[in-house]
Amino acid sequence: MNTKKEFIYNVLIILAIILLDILGDYIIFNKDIFSSNFTLFLFKTTFTITLLTIYIINYIYSVPKFLFKKKYLQYFLAFIVMILLFAGLRFFLEEVILYNITGKHNYFFDVPLSKLVSNYAWDSFYYTLRVCLVSAVVCLFFRYNENKEEIYHLQIEQEKAKLSALKSQISPHFLFNTLNNFYEELYDDKPKTAGDILKLSKLLRYVTYETNEDLVLVNKEITFIEDYLYFFKRRYEDNFHVQLHIDGFVHNLKIPSLILIHFVENVCKHGIINDKNRPANITLTINDNTLELRTKNHISTSDTYTEPGIGTKNIEQRLGFIYKDSFILDYQKNDNLFEAYLKLTL
């Protein structure tokens, strides 16, 4: 339970379940546990403990672990286990512990064994089903509210980012027109420089216009990375040693915009990229609906970064919002070697 409010709500719901059981016993069976004998009170207490145990297990583990992840078969198996746990725990508390204290059984043991087992099984199924339904609905309610809050905060952050971009940007049209003019002027005399200007214009145009969508085509992100590395190579010339490997067929897969470039940028910013004996490696593997990115680079002994920074934490939050638990993000730093690993299930 993530919040105090959630805890309080669950306590109130559990109390409501207990009170309804007491009221039901009073109305249907004319049993008043407070004015009747103490034995009945003990049996009701152990029964409540059993219900509470199943409620907590289902709420904290089974529903988030299986039901929310659409692992319905696993949840069904977990439900069977909870039925058995309910029956076993209740039998232990009532027929072992309380029997040794009070000398009384909760069920009539003078009935045939088959009927006794049948009654116990149906009771266990009914009460487990009821408490699992209640705890699942409550858990779903809080998860729904959490998602609403996440969406709200993400929308606020997106609006802030858009406003910041609007404040900081020079008119893109003016910038692109200027670059196009430079391209045309240099095309005949300096075709290589003109080509670089055109590539830079495409790179900036992609960042400015095409990344407004939450998801973009993987091949466009790959082209952006290749152009990004191209300009680093132009800067370092033959002293640039970053190896990019791309394996697999892209299809029409989409990923969050500017996610991959974050890791590539970290390699170029923090990594040693001008030593041919210690080249940096960037490997992108696409297999079916899975995308994996691995980066490996040496870092200088003077580089103090030892853990993901704010940018990386923002990336992780963004991935968590889009993919929930369907992604893996891992970092390893051993001596002067830094490795990053990202896996997305698309």
Q: Could you describe the 3D structure shown?
A:
The protein has 9 helices and 7 strands. The two termini are 29 Å apart. The protein is an alpha+beta fold and 346 residues long. It folds into 3 domains: 157 residues, no CATH class; 41 residues; 135 residues, Heat Shock Protein 90, CATH 3.30.565. The longest helix has 56 residues. It comes from Aquimarina amphilecti.
List the helices and strands and how they pair.
Blueprint: H1 4-28, H2 38-67, H3 72-102, H4 113-168, H5 172-186, H6 191-210, E1 215-217, H7 218-236, E2 242-247, E3 254-256, H8 260-270, E4 280-287, E5 290-298, H9 310-323, E6 327-334, E7 337-345
Give me some keywords for this one.
single chain, 346 residues, alpha+beta, five-stranded mixed sheet, 13% strand
